[in-house]
Amino acid sequence: MAKARCSDSYVLAANEAVQLHGGIDITDEHDTGFFMQPARACELNFGDVAHFRERYAQLNGYSTPCVDRGPRARFDPLHQPAVQAKHRPLFARPRATRRLRPVKAMLCKAFGPPESLVLEEQPQKPLGPGQVRIAVHAAGVNFPDVLMIQGKYQFKPPFPFAPGAEVAGQVTEVAPDVTTVKVGERVMAMVGAGGFADEAIAAAVSCMTLPKSMDYTVAAGFSMTYGTSYYALVQRAQMQPGEVLLVHGAAGGVGTAAVDIGKKLGAKIIATGGSDEKLARIAKHYGIEHTINYKTETNWKEKVRAITGGKGADVVYDAVGGELLETSLRCLNWNGRVLVIGFAGGDIPKIPANLVLLKSASLIGVFWGAWLGREPDVNRKNFQTMFEWYEAGALKPIISHTFPLPRAADALNCVINREVVGKCVITTGR
Ligand SMILES: NC(=O)c1ccc[n+]([C@@H]2O[C@H](COP(=O)([O-])OP(=O)(O)OC[C@H]3O[C@@H](n4cnc5c(N)ncnc54)[C@H](OP(=O)(O)O)[C@@H]3O)[C@@H](O)[C@H]2O)c1
To answer: From the CB of 345, is ligand 1 less than 6 Å away?
Structure first.
């Protein structure tokens, strides 16, 4: 360790080497970060030519140093630190010779409760076109993960599978046709399933490069909640500064994101929830003046009227459903908009259409997951804007719980028991 005579050019050369060889499979012993981070690159004595050549060859599975072997001999990072991208195919190592690294994952082998997940190692899968491999540092936990392991979700991956729809980590390999994401980038990505693992495969189009100040834990819980709430408030509701935003289930994942983004957009927030404790926490975190407990406040409609001077809310963000939807339409301002986000409460409400007519109101459906496939460029711009806000300290995601990967069942139970404020995240220990 730390012979520390490496120069920047040798670190660059090593990074180039990692890219040429696909990154992840260089060694079981040292993993991808080995060459990627200058500090860790000091583990190799890049200043010692003979040592570097020998170790580099050893790590890549060559029996003799690469400088002595056929066409590959042309890649000598010590003498060609700036290897051109056009040479990549020449130097790409055949897949068959790659040393595959086992992937640790919390596997669902039969439908059941969270406790039925088992921690096992699986062989690495090869990348398909357009895909990237991510060394997962953290994974967001969502209610659909619970449904998926119970066989109650529309998407049923073949057994065994790891649940986990969103991850954050470092890219370790990209398919040959991928140009938008590079090895070494810190990203967040939606993966559908497979996130509760220390490695995941994602479509390159779903990867977002993280802002510098965002850590992996925050990033793992950001995509779905902030992606949904930004799209809902900006593209769907066209929220204006000074308008009143009523957020139901405001302590939940999409709810906290709606409060956070709504505040940044200049809305006056009224936050509802079913727990005084959770409401107090978000009120303090976001500086919200008005909260309503919809479990204990029997006439919360009147409270909304009172807070708004009799006008009602301009925009309602409803991720809970049930009877909240109809009451929301009854405490809406003229030209009000109700965003139908989800039905966390379990009941899909039916509403009298006259309520929409009376206030010249709009009932607006929001399906972020489907929309981002139709308008990926707009979605990417949304994230760029949110990342700028985050860097400027204007967004404050809440992560109330984190659990290490082997405790994925506890993480899922936390969501089931409505203990989470903001997001619950699983960390892999990378
Ligand atoms: N439309 C879209 O594109 C989109 C995207 C993402 C998520 N969603 C949907 O939005 C909903 C919320 O997602 P989320 O990630 O924010 O979930 P979450 O973190 O679990 O939050 C849900 C919130 O709903 C409240 N709630 C009320 N009744 C509940 C019940 N019976 N069980 C559980 N929670 C209940 C809870 O607040 P209290 O405990 O304070 O009552 C909780 O904080 C889900 O239905 C999800 O499928 C939709």
So the answer is: yes
Residue 98 has what pLDDT?
57
CB 285 within 8 A of CB 268: no
Could you tell me the domains of the chain?
Answer: 8-97 (no CATH), 103-222+397-427 (3.90.180.10), 225-370 (3.40.50.720)
* Residue 102 tokens, joined: 């086992």
Pocket test for ligand 1, best of 141, 142, 143, 343 (most atoms within 8 A of CB): 143
> Which of 341, 368, 398, 421 most suits a substitution to test ligand 1, by most atoms within 8 Å of the C-beta?
341
Residue 286 in tokens = 């976001």
Query: Which tops the pLDDT comparison, 413 or 66?
Result: 413
The DSSP annotation for 91-127 comes to HPPPGGG--PPPEEEEEBSSS--GGG-EEEEEPPPPP
Instruction: Output the pTM of the full model.
Output: 0.80
Instruction: Give me ligand 1 centre to Cα 22, in Å.
Output: 39
CA-proximal residue: ligand 1, atom 29 (nearest): 345
> What token pair was written down for 85?
């991208």
Q: How many angstroms from the chain centroid is the CA of residue 314?
A: 30
Please list the residues that pair with 423 across neighbouring strands: 399
Q: Say what the pLDDT of residue 285 is.
A: 98
CA dist list (Å): 28 to 23, 69, 173: 12, 23, 15
Cα–Cα separations (whole angstroms), residue 287 to 18, 257, 260, 268, 272:
46, 14, 10, 11, 14
Tens digits of per-residue pLDDT, 69-121? 333 333 334 333 343 343 344 344 444 445 678 999 999 999 999 999 999 99
pLDDT tens readout for residues 112-155 = 999 999 999 999 999 999 999 999 999 999 999 999 999 999 88
CA dihedral for 299, 301, 303, 306, sign (positive or negative): negative
Do residues 408 and 117 touch, judged by C-beta distance below 8 A?
Answer: yes
Would you say the CB of residue 418 lies under 6 angstroms from ligand 1? yes
Please indicate whether residue 232, judged by its CB atom, sits closer than 6 Å to ligand 1: no
User: pLDDT by residue (tens digit) across 403-429?
Assistant: 999 999 999 999 999 999 999 999 999
Check if 253 has its Cβ closer than 6 Å to any atom of ligand 1.
Answer: yes
* Alpha helices, DSSP H, located in 135-252: 143-149, 216-220, 223-230
